[in-house]
C-alpha cells in the first residue's frame, strides 16, 4: 500500500519494547450458540516500516475488519477464533531501525502455524478461513496471481515477507476449510530484486477435497500496481478496505438474503472511484469462485418502496434501464407515460435506453417520483 510509491530506506535507531498490548474484547462477543463456531480468521496490519516508508492506514483498517468479523450481525466469528497482529500492538514510540521493529516474518507465520498443524493432524478444521493482510507488499515477477506482505523489518534489498496467496492456496489444496477468503490491501508491484518465497509449509495436498473448496480472493490493486490510502473521516484509511467494508455493510442481498462474493465484487467496483475521491488508483482485483459463490454475510432484504417514473415526452416505445449499486439492471417497457417499480433502499440510475435522458436517485424510506 502507498500514499505514493514505496520510498527509499531510512535510518537511525531507537529501542522497542516488544511486549504487545492485548486487544480488549467483551466476553459476551464469544457465543456458544454462534452458527459459525468453526470459522477462523487471521488479521495482520503493518504500518511501521523503518526500512521502507511509513503508512497510516493498515492498523486502523485491520482493527475495523476485526470489528466486522466478530460482530454477531456481520461476520459472527467467535473472538477466540480471530488472531490479530498489528504494529500498533507494540509499545510506542515507533522504532526507526529495522532490528527493533515488529511484527517480523516468523511472528506472522506463528499465527498460521496452529491451523496448519491442526489441518495436518485432523483434516478439516471448519467452514471458513478469513485472511486479511494490510501494509506494504509486492508480487512475484513470474506469477500474476501472487501477492506478499512485507514484514515490518523489510528493506528494499533484504525483504522478509509473508506470502499471503501461498498460505491461502495451501489451505485450499489440503481441504482444511470449506471456504477460503483472502483479502490483501497492499501494493502488488513487481520487485526486481525479490521473488516471493513460499512460507515453511508441508508439501501436502488433498486433490479430492481441494476441488470442493470455495474461494473469494480480493486484492487492493491489480498485478504490478500500487494500492493507495488517503484521509477518510479524520483518519488515514486504505481506499480498497474502506470500499470493501462499505460493500459488506451496505450491499443489497439477493432474494435469499445472501450477500455473495459476486455482489460484493460488483459493489466495490461501482463505488471505488467515489471512495478514492480523486486519488489515482488502479482497480482492485477480485476473484469470485464461479463453481460456488461464497455468501460473505447473510441479512434480510430491506423493505421496498416504489419508484414512479414519468416520461415527458412519451411515445410508447421507450425502455427504462434501472441500475442498482451492484450493477444489476432491470428493464421496463414503457407502454404508459407513468411506470412504477418496487426498489430496496439504495442508490440507482435510470436511463431511457438509446437516449441521454437519465437521472441518479436514492431510495431511502419512502416512495419517490422521477420525471425523465
Layout of helices and strands:
Layout: E1 40-45, H1 58-70, E2 82-86, H2 105-122, E3 126-134, E4 137-138, E5 148-150, E6 161-162, H3 164-173, E7 177-185, H4 207-210, E8 214-219, E9 229-232, E10 235-238, H5 239-250, E11 258-260, H6 261-276, E12 285-288, E13 295-298, E14 305-310, E15 319-324, E16 329-333, E17 338-343, E18 346-352, E19 358-363, E20 368-371
Parallel strand pairs: 1-2, 1-3, 3-7, 7-8, 14-20
Antiparallel strand pairs: 4-5, 5-6, 8-12, 9-10, 11-13, 14-17, 15-16, 15-18, 18-19
What does this structure look like?
By secondary structure, the protein is of the alpha/beta class. It folds into two domains: 27-298, 3-Layer(aba) Sandwich (Rossmann fold), CATH 3.40.50.1460; 305-371, Carboxypeptidase-like, regulatory domain (Immunoglobulin-like). Helices cover 20% and strands 27% of the residues. It is built from six helices and 20 strands. α5 crosses α6 (261-276). The longest helix has 18 residues, at 105-122. It is globular, with a radius of gyration of 23 Å. The two termini are 43 Å apart.
Amino acid at each position: 500500500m502507498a500514499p505514493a510509491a514505496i520510498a527509499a530506506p531510512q535510518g537511525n535507531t531507537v529501542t522497542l519494547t516488544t511486549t504487545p498490548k492485548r486487544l480488549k474484547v467483551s466476553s459476551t462477543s464469544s457465543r456458544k450458540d454462534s452458527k459459525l463456531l468453526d470459522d477462523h480468521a487471521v488479521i495482520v496490519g503493518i504500518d511501521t516500516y523503518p526500512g521502507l516508508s511509513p503508512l497510516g492506514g493498515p492498523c486502523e483498517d485491520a482493527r475495523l475488519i476485526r470489528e466486522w468479523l466478530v460482530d454477531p450481525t456481520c461476520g459472527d466469528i467467535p473472538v477466540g477464533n480471530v488472531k490479530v497482529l498489528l504494529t500498533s500492538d507494540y509499545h510506542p514510540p515507533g522504532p526507526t531501525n529495522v532490528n527493533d521493529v515488529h511484527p517480523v516474518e516468523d511472528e506472522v507465520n506463528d499465527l498460521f502455524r496452529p491451523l496448519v498443524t491442526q489441518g495436518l493432524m485432523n483434516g478439516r478444521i471448519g467452514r471458513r478461513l478469513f485472511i486479511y493482510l494490510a501494509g506494504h507488499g509486492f508480487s512475484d515477477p513470474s506469477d500474476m496471481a501472487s501477492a506478499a506482505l512485507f514484514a515490518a523489518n523489510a528493506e528494499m534489498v533484504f525483504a522478509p515477507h509473508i506470502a499471503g496467496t501461498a498460505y491461502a492456496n495451501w489451505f485450499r489444496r489440503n481441504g482444511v476449510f470449506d471456504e477460503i477468503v483472502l483479502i490483501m490491501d497492499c501494493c502488488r508491484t513487481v520487485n526486481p530484486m525479490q521473488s516471493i518465497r513460499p512460507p515453511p509449509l508441508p508439501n501436502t495436498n488433498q486433490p479430492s477435497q481441494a476441488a470442493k473448496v470455495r474461494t473469494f480472493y480480493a486484492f487492493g490493486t491489480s498485478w504490478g500496481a500500487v494500492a493507495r490510502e488517503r484521509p477518510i473521516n479524520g483518519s488515514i484509511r486504505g481506499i480498497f478496505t474502506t470500499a470493501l467494508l462499505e460493500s459488506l455493510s451496505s450491499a443489497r442481498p439477493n432474494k435469499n438474503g445472501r450477500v455473495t462474493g459476486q455482489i460484493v465484487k460488483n459493489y466495490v467496483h461501482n463505488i471505488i472511484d467515489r471512495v478514492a475521491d480523486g486519488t489515482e488508483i488502479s482497480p482492485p482485483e477480485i476473484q469470485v469462485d464461479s463453481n460456488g459463490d461464497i455468501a460473505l454475510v447473510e441479512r434480510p432484504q430491506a423493505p421496498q418502496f416504489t419508484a414512479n417514473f414519468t416520461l415527458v415526452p412519451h411515445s410508447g416505445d421507450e425502455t427504462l434501464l434501472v441500475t442498482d449499486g451492484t450493477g444489476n439492471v432491470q428493464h421496463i417497457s414503457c407502454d404508459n407515460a407513468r411506470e412504477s417499480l418496487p426498489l430496496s433502499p439504495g442508490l440507482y440510475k435510470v436511463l431511457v435506453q438509446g437516449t441521454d435522458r437519465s437521472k441518479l436517485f436514492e431510495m431511502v424510506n419512502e416512495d419517490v417520483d422521477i420525471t425523465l
